[in-house]
Amino acid sequence: MKKRVLMFLEIGLIVLGLTACGTTSRQLTATDLPNASKYEPTLFFHGWGSSYRAEEQMAHALVNAGLTKTIMRATVSKQGKVSLSGQFREGDYHPIVEVDFKDSRQSNPRQWGRWAKATIVKLQQRYHTKKFNAVGHSMGNMAIMYELLDNTPGLPKMQKQVDIAGHFNGILGMNDAPNRMKLYSNGKPKKMQADYKTLLRLRKTYPKNQIAVLNIYGDKNDGSHSDGSVSNASSKSLRYLVSERAKSYQERKIVGPRAQHSKLHDNVQVDRLLIQFLR
Length: 279
Hints:
Layout: H1 2-24, E1 42-45, H2 56-64, E2 71-76, E3 82-85, E4 96-101, H3 109-127, E5 131-137, H4 139-150, E6 157-164, H5 194-199, H6 202-205, E7 212-219, H7 232-236, H8 238-242, E8 248-255, H9 268-278
Parallel strand pairs: 1-4, 1-5, 2-4, 5-6, 6-7, 7-8
Antiparallel strand pairs: 2-3
Helix pairs in contact: 2-9, 3-4
């Protein structure tokens, strides 16, 4: 009899323990966070064929610089469903959200824009997010640009936009070649690629005096005036699309071997620019 009683007591304690674990792991929502509207997350968008791992150095650089203590992740499935892991922390108003697109070899930039929008909507639903920052590398920049092109009313407002190695008007070896693309003094390409022509609408719809823009591009200093994958002219063509409506617009060039396209997201100079700009 005593053995039975002890067994039931042990089972009861195990159940209570599991219940307690479930409670502590519950995701915080806006109702759990005082001043929920004050939280302004920074979303990182990786490039084509990549993953959230490409965002890790930049994210941890911001943490080490004291901008935040929170890194969470938004995983976007091939079907566009967003799941969040980690959570905002009370009083840490500038959390980082590493976005991970599972279908990262999708070549349609409009689809990337839909996924970016789905991520923003998810954060709005859970945390009542009203403002956010966005950092893109390579194709991640197109996710940002096409999300802005969608111009859906009622979504959180972007405050700062960082574009790293953006191929706004073409990619070397596909629709561009070293030193071929030319820009007018205002950044307008003398010859526009199809995606760029689509993005031209932003010249009239980009949020007026709302977003501060930092455009970072790499020059390997090998005579190609490119980061090896994207010409500097293609990256700098962003200016014509947004500068007249942006709150501010600045360009920064990274030079040398570490300025190669896929190394820019692991570049300490880029980290410093991000810290300074997002602080």
